[in-house]
Amino acid sequence: MNTTGAQSGQVVSKIGRKTFVVERGLKVCLLSDSICRGVEDHINNIQAFVHPGTNLSRSLGQHVWHFDKITGSMLVLINIGSNDIASGIRPQDLVDKMLALINRIQDGHQEPMYFAVCAVLPRPVDDLQKKNVVKECNALLEHCFESWENVAFLRTNSVFLSRGQIVQQLYGRDGLHLNMQGKQKLFGYINRFLWHFCRHK
């Protein structure tokens, strides 16, 4: 991520091959499963909607109403997908559900909306069975959003891998959830992105 000069009140950031020009201090919202529980303790001024156990279909049907009540330009972070993969979803179906969720959230909003889709994180508990599926889902998501002007794909999975293997000490004993060290890694990545993207603080 690189940041270049901008007009007063704006931030210009280059993420991958795309350049974003957004309002400085843009409103930030988060829609996530339990992996982001406690995010408000690590990221300031974020409106977080954390729904343990959720998947993309459930969020599309039950949780998008949060955004119908929010006005103004905003950035929406989405960190959902692990439960979809655990349920046996095909990678392309996961991508289609993510697209449907984003389209529903921005439907009817007149002000600019931006999205940051976090990579699906690997999990020790099912890594042997799902490793290749997780990799394919993330590759498809990243490729898909290359052509979406208002969506950035965040490679949050990168901080949980070392030479292609899961960094076990970032997870709890259940192999599902992040421990405090893991959450600090995830939220640290997101904080750095938010600073580059809109000077969020």
Q: From the alpha-carbon coordinates, what is the Rg to the nearest angstrom? A: 16 Å
Strand order of the largest sheet: 5-4-6-7-8
Tally of distinct domains: 1
CATH architectural type = 3-Layer(aba) Sandwich
| Total number of helices | 6
* Percent range of helical residues: 25-40%
Would you mind describing this structure in some detail?
This protein has helices spanning 56-62, 65-68, 82-86, 91-106, 127-145, 180-198; strands spanning 2-4, 10-15, 18-23, 27-32, 47-50, 74-79, 113-118, 151-154, 161-162, 165-166. It has one domain (26-195): SGNH hydrolase (Rossmann fold, 3-Layer(aba) Sandwich). Helix 1 packs parallel to helix 4 (91-106) and helix 4 crosses helix 5. The protein is globular, with a radius of gyration of 16 Å. It has six helices and ten strands, in the order βββββααβααβαβββα. A hairpin with a 2-residue loop joins strand 2 (10-15) and strand 3 (18-23). The protein starts with a strand and ends with a helix. The longest helix is centred in the last third of the chain and has 19 residues, at 127-145. With 201 residues, the protein is of the alpha/beta class.
Concise summary:
With 201 residues, the chain is of the alpha/beta class. Helix content is 35%, strand content 22%. The chain has one domain (26-195): SGNH hydrolase (Rossmann fold), CATH 3.40.50.1110.
